[in-house]
Amino acid sequence: MQNGHNSEMKLFTGSSNPALAEKIANYIGAPLGEIDITRFPDGEIFAKVKENIRGKDVFVLQSTCNPPNEHLMELLIMIDAMKRASAERITAVIPYYGYARQDRKDQPRVPITAKLVANLLVAAGVNRLLMVDLHAQQIQGFFDIPVDHLYGFPVISKYLQSKDFKNLVVVAPDTGGVKAAYAYSQLLECGLAVVAKQRMGPSEVEAFTLVGSVDGCTAIMVDDMTTTAGTLCSAAGLLHEHGAAEIYAAVSHSTITDVGVERLKASAIKELVVTDTVPLGVDFGDYPVTVLTVAELLGEAILRIHEGRSVTTLFRA
Q1: pLDDT over 50 (residue 299)
Q2: 173 in a domain, yes or no?
Q3: 197 catalytic residue (yes or no)
Q4: Span 42-86, pLDDT tens digits
Q5: 265: domain range?
Q6: 286 and 311 belong to one structural domain
Q7: CATH number of the structural domain spanning residue 268
Q8: 65-74, pLDDT tens digit by residue?
Q9: What does the alpha-carbon distance between residue 20 and residue 146 come to, in Å, rounded to a whole number?
Q10: CA distance 235 to 196
């Protein structure tokens, strides 16, 4: 196969999302590489690559989701093992980049942990990154190595289009999500509304202003992630007050907790749509949640990176 590095491609996975890794391996038509990840009795992580990767173009998949510290450290150790095994190039495929919310110093004496994690990845030996729906696009600038940033909206929009909603409006549940919501509204050819919010604490949000009209509409809130569902449920309450006929929510990364599930059940949100960048770690019971796979998206991006082709064209109509 002709490619950018003229070397064989190998795909490995950590323990955070093996189901997604298997789907990607099926798409690219290559088995997952063999790697043993174990723990010493005191909890230290040990990784051993069980096949020759000298001179290979290596991709290692790991979402730094719950527990983020375990999965991040596991990723760093895998990368170090691969670097010392003389891999030609190591691309970290991180569908969900944890610590992304700590991307700026917005209070005195606080860290910029998203930058710290970037430094750790580069120090471990990563040559390139592939990520999906970063919490803030400027995080790409924290790296001095190539970053390919994918978007979940083609996958989610395709599902939403199949529902054939009437009188549709896309809603950004906070001002930070306006750009993404606009992209959805353009793809779905519908209106756009924005909820302005005030965050009262790490898990408490008070929505207070709606810009745009949702009266009698089917409102679809779109966001990059949800954990406690505070933003989504608070915004949904405001949309309901303003006459929205039906309310749905679509997010790329579901890092949701039990508290978030209970909030969703008590909210006006009829269905939650997520992708499998992060495995569902909680039981939703009878609450309707739809999980869409990004395996084809990531698999195609991996093939294009390996072959030295454009990744950007994945998002061109």
Answers
A1: yes
A2: yes
A3: yes
A4: 999 999 999 999 999 999 999 999 999 999 999 999 999 999 999
A5: 153-292
A6: no
A7: 3.40.50.2020
A8: 999 999 999 9
A9: 23
A10: 9
